[in-house]
Design a protein that fits this description.
By secondary structure, the protein is of the alpha+beta class. It has helices at 10-13, 18-44, 53-62, 85-88, 90-104, 110-125, 128-136, 173-192, 220-223, 235-241, 249-267, 270-273, 278-297, 304-308, 312-327, 329-333, 339-362, 367-382, 397-417, 420-430, 434-437; strands spanning 3-5, 71-76, 79-84, 143-151, 163-171, 207-219, 228-231, 243-248. Helix content is 58%, strand content 12%.
Length: 450
């Protein structure tokens, strides 16, 4: 599903003014319209069929636009040419830009209005950087909105080209403030530790974390059912202007109800499972997605994407799980989470990996995520931290935590200074999707159509 609508409770809508509700309706239409561009990208790809990686790298030395994240590469008269997205998709983007400008008329927040106008302009002219900076400057808005080519996961050749997506959200103030406390505690501890492989690239302007109910989301983020996402994709912008981490609460709730909790009830031994209530696991889900994304930002090193190329995705995904949980020990020490909650977070981590694999069976766009997960699952199994026998009996949490800390060190090293060959060897050593198949009998009834 590349376009998703969610029901949002009246307690969120009732906090909006009449002007904000009008603006929200228009932006929901924009999110739906964006899905058409994403589907066009899925159909056409980022490169004309037959173009090789070697050709792209050679041509890119003569024309930097060939390697731009925001161009489609075609071949004419035997020569590779770059076509900017804002030209290639102009017939879709122009009416979208007009709708965004119309929505801006209803904004009562000056900075949000400026952002909407900048975003509309970027879609017409391709100046996405200016729009991203304007977005980062928005403060105290009740509505959040994004549209642009953001994620690189679908570019399996260069891991450069970006796919379109859009979302509109209503800020959940209460949970946003709670999550910000998690973030501040996690990062203050990380900055004090002596590890050589993290915290050096935490944005100097800070990371703003927002929990949002999402009436509508489309494109890649909807396609792979993201629970959480970090913006901007350019580290240079983040270091100068800060960044945003968005927790898509509507998608997170859907995944918990349709994937995580059903998998939990199926795959764990019943006596063990009885120790963890549904409410505790639901709370742990919010913690898990938060730790995952904040963990990734502790190792957001300049040049990592270019160095590791298409292998960056699986390494980064595995690192999000491992580093996020590894740093959670600081939260236990500070009394912010209990031992039971930490165990529940690790359980959700395991369920998340299986959910990604189930999703991957019907949607190959999840490939980077499931390869990253498989590296961790294989390591847990090989170290005896998990034992498979018609499901999972009693996880050895101490051993899992040891595995997580070990993997976190290796993964963060690869992100900071590892070579392409290092990452390739690491993935070949640990990644094996067949490990998930050992549990397939227990998961046949889980809903693949989420």
């Amino acid at each position: 599903m590349t376009y998703r609508k969610f029901k949002v409770g009246n307690q969120y809508y009732n906090k909006l003014t009449s002007s904000e509700r009008e603006m929200l309706k228009i932006l929901e239409d924009v999110v739906e319209d964006t899905d058409e561009i994403y589907r066009k990208q899925l159909e056409d790809g980022f490169f004309m069929v037959g173009i090789t990686k070697q050709e792209l790298e050679v041509a890119g030395k003569k024309d930097s636009e060939i390697l731009s994240p925001f161009t489609y590469v075609d071949r004419k008269n035997g020569k590779l040419i770059a076509i900017p997205y804002h030209q290639l998709y102009a017939k879709y983007l122009e009416p979208i830009a007009q709708k965004i400008e119309n929505a801006a008329k209803f904004s009562e927040n000056k900075l949000f209005k400026q952002y909407l106008l900048a975003r509309a302009k970027s879609l017409r002219g391709g100046s996405y950087k200016k729009a991203d900076i304007a977005w980062l400057n928005v403060k105290n808005a009740n509505i959040d909105f994004s549209i642009a080519p953001f994620e690189r996961y679908l570019d399996k050749i260069l891991f450069i080209k970006r796919s379109f997506q859009a979302h509109v959200g209503i800020i959940d103030r209460k949970n946003t403030e709670l999550v910000k406390k998690y973030k501040d505690a996690l990062y203050s501890s990380a900055k004090l530790t002596e590890s050589n492989y993290h915290s050096t690239a935490i944005p100097k302007k800070g990371i703003d974390v927002l929990v949002e109910m999402t009436p509508a989301i489309s494109g890649y983020a909807a396609d792979v059912l993201f629970s959480i996402e970090h913006f901007p994709c350019d580290l240079e912008i983040a270091l100068k202007h800060g960044s945003k981490t968005l927790i898509y609460a509507s998608q997170t709730n859907l995944k918990f109800e349709k994937l995580y909790y059903p998998i939990f009830r199926t795959i764990f031994e019943k006596r063990f499972a009885s120790r963890y209530s549904k409410d505790l696991l639901k709370e742990a889900t919010v913690w898990s997605v938060t730790l995952y994304e904040l963990g990734k930002q502790l190792h957001n090193f300049a040049g990592a994407r270019e160095r590791l190329q298409e292998l960056y995705g699986p390494i980064d995904e595995a690192n999000g799980f491992a580093s996020g949980i590894a740093h959670s020990k600081h939260l236990v020490v500070k009394g912010m989470i209990s031992q039971d909650l930490l165990e529940a977070i690790i359980i959700i981590h395991i369920l998340w990996m299986f959910a990604d694999w189930i999703y991957y069976l019907s949607n190959k766009h999840k490939e980077s995520h499931v390869i990253g997960s498989s590296m961790l699952l294989n390591y847990y199994l090989s170290m005896g931290a998990l034992k498979q026998s018609e499901g999972i009996s009693w996880p050895n949490f101490s051993r899992i935590f040891f595995c997580i800390e070990s993997m976190a060190d290796n993964l963060s090293f690869l992100l900071q200074k590892g070579t392409y060959e290092d990452a390739d060897g690491f993935i070949k050593k640990y990644a094996d999707l067949k490990s998930f198949e050992k549990f397939s009998k227990n998961l046949t009834h889980i809903n693949l159509g989420v």
